[in-house]
Amino acid sequence: MIQLGASSGKVISHLAEIFPESDCIYSDIFEDVTSFAETKSNLPNLKFVTCPSESLPALVQIAKNKKVLIISIGSSQYVQPEYIDKTFRLLSKVK
Q1: Distance between CA 2 and CA 59 in Å, rounded?
Q2: Residues 6+ apart with CB under 8 A from 50
Q3: N or C: more exposed end of the chain, with fewer CB within 10 A?
Q4: Is residue 91 very low, low, confident or very high in pLDDT (cuts 50, 70, 90)?
Q5: Which own/partner contact pairs does 50-59 have at CB distance under 8 Å and 24+ positions apart?
Q6: CB 23 within 8 A of CB 64
Q7: Collapsing DSSP states into helix, strand and coil, what is residue 28?
Q8: What mean pLDDT, rounded, does the chain reach?
Q9: Sheet with strand 2-3: strands edge to edge
């Protein structure tokens, strides 16, 4: 599971606790936010990555499994207008 724009990390941390056999990836575009969220969790199946949504293909490569669930709760509204189409095209190519 990958959460784009995970902010506080509460959602992806909760999912990592519920599904300990799944690899979970927190992502946010701000290093300070990612660093802060990382101090709040030490789950072995949760990784923290700072990257923009345009880097989604590289982010998916981090995932160990072939099936990937991408979650974006309220954060996709912050994708810059010129990147909306590109971001959703990238999402549609993730397998």
Answers
A1: 8
A2: 27, 28, 29, 30, 31, 34
A3: C
A4: low
A5: 51/27, 53/4, 53/5, 53/29, 53/79, 53/83, 53/87, 53/90, 54/83, 54/86, 54/87, 54/90, 56/4, 56/87, 56/90, 56/91, 56/94, 57/90, 57/93, 57/94, 59/2, 59/25, 59/27
A6: yes
A7: strand
A8: 83
A9: 46-50, 24-28, 2-3, 70-71
Which residue has tokens 């941390």? 13
Task: DSSP letter for 22, please.
Answer: S
Question: 62: exposed, middle or buried (C-beta count within 10 Å: 0-12, 13-18, 19+)?
Answer: middle
pLDDT digits (tens, 9 = 90+) for 11-28: 999 999 999 999 999 999
Contact (CB, 8 A) for 87 and 65: no
Place of tokens 């992806």: 12
d(CA 47, CA 51) in angstroms, rounded, equals 13
